[in-house]
Amino acid sequence: QVQLVESGGGLVQSGGSLRLSCAASGRIISLNVMGWYRQAPGKQRELVATITGGGGTNYADSVKGRFAISRDNAKNTAFLQMNSLKPEDTAVYYCNAVGYHYTTGSFNSWGQGTQVTVSS
Description:
This protein is an all-beta fold. The chain contains no helices and eleven strands.
């Protein structure tokens, strides 16, 4: 079983910055892709950014140039640096990880979510 623990959410003013962290634990063979998704009230969950084990990244158009995803492969941890935050970035942010586990094989796991609130 793979567990993802997120941290770093909170309340920030428009234009401010936050850094989210997501630590994966368990008998992990590999973490192929780690990513961040978000869900605002009344809306569907949407992709924010993903990063592969080799460092390839993908971003939603709405966050390009403002957010940066990174990872520490040695610590099975992913980060999301969020700059120039806007009120429309307000949402619950979820970490996602796709990879292989020693006993259960392939997995696609989600964190519990962390609230990000941007005030205008």
